[in-house]
């Protein structure tokens, strides 16, 4: 990893700040509509399923499976020069999907359905990112 | 019900030279003005005839463009925020404006310094601008939930869909290569193509290095400087102008859901074009089977396969067969990107696809002319899979 260039971090405002306040405590939480029960990510004001404005931060069990991925070979950002690296879509059991990293698996060994479990990595003093490992 | 079918027509086309090193030496506004002037001359119109403009969300405001262009009575202006779908969707906007008499001649342009202004090829000096543009264009999710993981470019986002398709349907690499090879072959016939004089084979394609797996270097479009422009007016007025008129028979835009987040879509392969294509065909009363050619937005090779399927040229998973055996090359069943496309002519957000479609339907496509071309389809793809599709028809 390179310390020379800053990595882009989420802007900690609004609902994004709330999402990452939970990951900082090593909790993966998503919005869940309290009217119809549908989980959602990324954070939104209204439930697209039923139109309700009522929701809660519901804690995910953190278990999911690999859904898709791509493997970056050419540098696309100076904060990420440790190549190649895979960016992976993980589908949580509750429904939401995250674009994330899966640690301890070589890009060539990724496959759809690979079972994974959430873990957390500090990206800065303020931001902790959810990442995944095989389970 | 009112219909836009054949209400509006394309009467002027213009392009700048397309280049890579050393760059255009001009601003994006300057490039768009130059292309617009060429379109005006092609149509035989004067700057005072233009009273509507459609521009992209960068380069300049629509008003700045209009002031420079000498439009003293700007009746209608819009900036379309759909990335590379903006030119085709711009046609829809322009057609609506002229059909209802909001404006009489609408200039639609798109240009950028994709080589000198926003390069990411190992030179990150313009990266902040690029990322800010993505945030403005696509939204907050990309900034807060993609970038922190180093997913910072279209190649990285779109490969998620490509990889899913390849896994689901067993899509072979050679299908992607067939698109790249066809575009490069067509560029050899086009004096305006950046890749003219640099032919490429399937072996060259297969040997090219990874950029973002499953995309190799030769799966990726060019980064070029340039601009293109077209002029839209009513079909009635078009028949009195100097060029053979090309009607906008059907046009539509579509957005995937959610538009600003690829990964949480119920189906990663359902895109804006999935919704737009049937609407445009219904308006035109024509479908993909009627097209003599298709100019398909080719930011990457897989996006062509993907759009051929979603636009109904073939069923899901069937695009590898559709592009095999020279079917999409000139002389084949449905030639695509007869100018070389973004892959081998130049990247001006697909406005060059619109320009080439008009050339074909006028019979002005030179060595790449499709014999007897009467109907052509143009697609646009932008941002996270926003889509547009236009069915164009010769009225000559
Ligand atoms: Zn709900």
Please explain how this structure is put together.
The complex is a heterodimer of chains A (135) and B (396). Chain A has 1 helix and 8 strands. Chain A has one helix at 14-24; strands at 29-33, 39-40, 55-59, 63-72, 85-92, 97-100, 115-122, 128-134. In chain A, the strands form 2 sheets. A 5-stranded antiparallel β-sheet of chain A has the order 6-5-4-7-8. A 3-stranded antiparallel β-sheet of chain A has the order 2-1-3. In chain A, a hairpin with a 5-residue loop joins strand 7 and strand 8 (128-134). Chain A is globular. The model of chain A has no long low-confidence stretch (mean pLDDT 95). Chain B starts with 7 loop residues before the first strand and ends with a strand. The radius of gyration of chain B is 19 Å and the shape is globular. With 396 residues, chain B is an alpha/beta fold. In chain B, a hairpin with a 1-residue loop joins strand 5 (210-213) and strand 6. Helix content of chain B is 36%, strand content 17%. Chains A and B meet through strand 4, strand 5 and strand 6 of A and helix 5, helix 6 and strand 5 of B. Strand 4 (63-72) of chain A pairs antiparallel with strand 5 (210-213) of chain B. Bound molecules: zinc ion. Residues 33, 35-36, 38, 47, 49-50, 52 of chain A line the site of zinc ion.
């Amino acid at each position: 990893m390179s310390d020379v260039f800053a990595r882009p971090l989420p802007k900690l405002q609004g609902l994004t700040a709330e999402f990452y306040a939970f990951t900082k405590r090593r909790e993966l939480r998503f919005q869940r509509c309290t009217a119809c029960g549908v989980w959602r990510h990324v954070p939104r004001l209204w439930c697209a399923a039923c139109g309700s404005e009522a929701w809660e931060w519901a804690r995910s069990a953190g278990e999911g499976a690999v859904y898709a991925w791509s493997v970056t070979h050419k540098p696309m950002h100076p904060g990420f020069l440790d190549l190649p690296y895979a960016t992976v879509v993980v589908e949580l059991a509750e429904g939401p999907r995250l674009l994330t990293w899966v640690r301890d698996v070589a890009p060539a060994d990724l496959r759809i359905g690979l079972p994974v479990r959430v873990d957390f990595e500090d990206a800065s003093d303020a931001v902790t990112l959810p990442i995944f490992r095989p389970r | 019900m009112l219909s836009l079918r054949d209400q509006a027509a394309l009467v002027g086309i213009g392009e700048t030279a397309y280049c890579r090193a050393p760059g255009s030496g001009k601003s994006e506004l300057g490039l768009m003005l130059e292309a617009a002037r060429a379109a005006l001359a092609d149509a035989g119109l004067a700057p005072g005839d233009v009273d509507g403009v459609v521009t992209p969300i960068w380069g300049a405001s629509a008003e700045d463009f209009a002031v420079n262009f000498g439009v003293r009575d700007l009746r209608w202006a819009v900036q379309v925020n759909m990335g590379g779908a903006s030119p085709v969707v711009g046609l829809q906007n322009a057609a609506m404006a002229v059909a209802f008499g909001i404006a009489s001649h609408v200039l639609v342009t798109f240009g950028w310094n994709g080589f000198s202004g926003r390069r990411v090829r190992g030179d990150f000096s313009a990266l902040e601008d690029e990322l800010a543009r993505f945030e403005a264009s696509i939204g907050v999710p990309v900034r807060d939930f993609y970038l922190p993981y180093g997913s910072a470019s279209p190649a990285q986002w779109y490969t998620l869909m490509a990889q899913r398709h390849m896994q689901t349907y067993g899509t072979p690499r050679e299908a992607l290569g067939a698109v790249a090879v066809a575009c490069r072959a067509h560029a050899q016939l086009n004096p305006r193509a950046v890749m003219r004089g640099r032919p490429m084979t399937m072996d060259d394609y297969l040997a090219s290095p990874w950029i973002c797996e499953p995309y190799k270097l030769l799966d990726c479009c060019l980064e070029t400087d340039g601009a293109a422009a077209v002029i839209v007016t009513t079909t009635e007025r078009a028949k009195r102008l100097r060029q053979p008129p090309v009607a906008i028979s059907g046009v539509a835009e579509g957005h995937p859901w959610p538009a600003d987040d690829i990964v949480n879509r119920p189906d990663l392969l359902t895109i804006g074009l999935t919704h737009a294509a049937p609407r445009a065909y219904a308006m035109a009363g024509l479908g993909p089977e009627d097209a003599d050619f298709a100019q398909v937005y080719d930011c990457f090779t897989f996006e062509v396969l993907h759009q051929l399927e979603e636009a109904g040229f073939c069923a899901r998973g069937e695009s590898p067969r559709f592009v095999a055996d020279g079917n999409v090359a000139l002389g084949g069943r449905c030639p695509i990107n007869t100018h070389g496309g973004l892959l081998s002519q130049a990247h001006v957000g697909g406005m060059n696809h619109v320009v080439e479609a008009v050339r074909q339907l006028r019979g002005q496509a030179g060595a790449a002319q499709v014999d007897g071309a009467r109907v052509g389809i143009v697609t646009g793809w932008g941002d996270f899979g926003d889509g547009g599709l236009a069915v164009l028809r010769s009225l000559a």
